[in-house]
From TrEMBL:
Residues 258-355 form the FAD-binding FR-type domain. The keyword Nucleus does not apply. The keyword Cell inner membrane does not apply. The chain crosses the membrane at residues 21-48, 54-74, 95-114, 134-154, 166-186. Keywords: 2Fe-2S, FAD, Flavoprotein, Iron, Iron-sulfur, Membrane, Metal-binding, Oxidoreductase, Transmembrane, Transmembrane helix. It comes from the Bacteria. Signal peptide: none annotated. Its cofactor is FAD. This is Fatty acid desaturase.
Length: 518
């Protein structure tokens, strides 16, 4: 898979659900430094041992320490934290792999490691892969870490890219063949003492320290860096979204502000099959409280009391507040609502925080399903209006065109922004007219048809894992996307989360909003 390298200047990210996001440099100085130090230590120990200057009992611990450094670099590269540039992570990961593995490949380790995170979070991880296994299992696992990963990978190779399988086979055969050749030439002891033994000891030392080292240390103002990294690694092992390279920030839960206010309904309008918009008038003294834009939310309930629901205000005229509801879910609450009726509304804060920059040139991507478009629409309109050089790609899943919320508004935005907004529609109803728009060509408009540019695409069926993976390997490659926004039903949200993790999208760049069917 080819990697598109873009030379974008490092710029501050928008506030996400996990608080202020730390900016990741194109190349991580710490990762390069650790790799350089490990390589230098390994090389010097090797040369001094071969020259007879230092005994093996000195060089073996030194090379074991270098192995630990290479494992750290490879782990950071797996999670795309050795730099913002993809090729930097690919290069450092591949260069570090031979220092702790004799079989497998960096892509293999990446796939199995990320899968390990997913199954561990789901509670389905095999006993031998758990961090709390008996000490002898932990010892065996890290003593043959490359073999353990290879055994885990082989049953799953059928669904993996051919390039990944080929690289794994070539790396394993070439590396094992090289070692066998050196041993056959009479240098077996050197291979064991200068390569295999320090490699295995370093892997065991890393695994033992991280998973079996001290767990309760007294608070100290200046802790040893290795202890800090160990604690962060353990937190990362339990929660992969927390990176090892920096302190994690606790997620910010949606907040509510103020109290319930009674607002008068000014308009009730059908916007799609089974969907209605409700517009309410906001008095001047409450307009600051009921603001619009990204991250705004409102909690709505009948004046008489009862069940309340949370909505994201839709873009509307100043002095008004508009929400979109699905009749199937909110029918019992708003079935008989008419202009002049009143609703109890309270302001809140969602997770789609966004700080726009008029000078930014970013690429945003959103995945929305059904009414999940409601939290995305304010983000989309804010980006298009306030960042003239930025662009937005929307992956929008619905049953049919008739049930698509804000279809006309989105089409108008796409047509009026000269390609800065591109929409990929996925329709699950095979009878949807939008999927059968072909018409008989007319000679008079052949040139016009050829030159016509459409900023909306229609695809038959769901947004599947294969489709999303294909997009991330081409037009939506992670290196070309700055921020991701996801609001969809649980199945689609988890699919997007899995594919984004697989493609090493930095967790801080992905924002998830809680989906509500209504």
């Amino acid at each position: 898979m080819s990697v598109v390298d873009t030379r974008r200047q490092a710029r501050d990210r928008a506030l996400s659900a996990t608080g202020p996001r730390a900016s990741l440099a194109p190349v991580s100085v710490s990762a390069v430094t650790v790799f350089g130090a490990g390589f230098a230590l390994w090389s010097c120990a090797l040369l001094l041992a071969l020259a007879g200057v230092l005994p093996f009992w000195v060089t073996v611990p030194a090379q074991s320490l270098a192995t630990i450094a290479m494992i750290v670099v490879a782990h950071h590269s797996i999670h795309h934290t050795s730099g913002r540039l993809t090729w930097v992570n690919e290069l450092l990961g591949r260069l570090a792999t031979p220092f702790f593995a004799v079989c497998g490949s960096f892509p293999l380790f990446r796939f199995v490691h990320l899968e390990q995170h997913r199954v561990l979070a789901a509670g389905e991880v095999p006993a031998t892969w758990r961090p709390d296994v008996p000490w002898w299992r932990l010892l065996l696992r890290w003593l043959a870490i490359d073999l353990a990963y290879l055994v885990r990978y082989l049953p799953r190779r059928s669904g993996r890219p051919r390039a990944e399988i080929a690289e794994t086979a070539v790396f394993t055969l070439v590396w094992l063949g090289t070692l066998a050749t050196v041993v056959a030439a009479g240098h077996g002891p050197e291979v064991v003492l200068l390569y295999l033994l320090p490699q295995r000891l370093g892997a065991v030392a890393f695994g033992w320290y991280v998973f079996r080292g001290p767990r309760h240390e007294p608070a100290r103002p200046h802790r040893f860096p290795a202890a800090v990294y160990r604690d962060r690694f353990r937190k990362h092992h339990r929660k992969p979204a927390i990176p090892c390279h920096r302190r994690a920030t606790a997620p910010a839960a949606p907040a509510t502000t103020g109290r319930f206010r009674e607002l008068a309904v000014s308009e009730v309008r059908r916007i799609a099959a089974g969907a209605t918009s409700i517009r309410m008038a906001v008095p001047p003294d409450l307009r600051a409280e009921f603001r619009q834009g990204p991250a705004a939310q409102v909690i709505v309930r009948p004046v008489a009391g009862g069940r309340h629901r949370t909505y994201v205000p839709c873009p509307s005229e100043p002095g008004t507040l508009t929400i979109a509801v699905r009749e199937a879910d909110d029918g019992p609450v708003f079935a008989d609502l008419r202009p002049g009726d009143r609703l109890s509304v309270r302001a809140g804060t969602g997770r789609f925080a966004l700080t726009t920059d008029p000078g930014a040139a970013k690429h945003y991507v959103a995945v929305a399903g059904g009414s999940g478009i409601a939290p995305v629409l304010p983000v989309l309109t804010a980006v298009l209006a306030e960042e003239p050089q930025s662009r937005f790609t929307l992956l929008y899943v619905n049953r049919s065109g008739a049930s698509t919320m804000f279809a006309e508004e989105l089409t108008s935005l796409a047509a009026g922004t000269d390609g800065r907004l591109r929409i990929l529609h996925y329709r699950t109803d095979e009878r949807d007219p939008d999927l059968h728009r072909a018409r008989a060509p007319k000679r008079a408009d052949v040139v016009a048809e050829a030159l016509a540019v459409s900023y909306e695409e229609y695809h038959r069926g769901r947004l599947t894992e294969t489709r999303l993976r294909t997009l991330l390997e081409a037009r939506l490659h992670p290196v070309t996307v700055d921020e991701w926004f996801v609001c969809a039903p649980h199945g689609l949200t988890e699919l997007a989360r899995s594919v984004l993790e697989e493609h090493l999208v930095e967790p801080g760049a992905v924002h998830y909003e809680r989906f509500q069917p209504g």
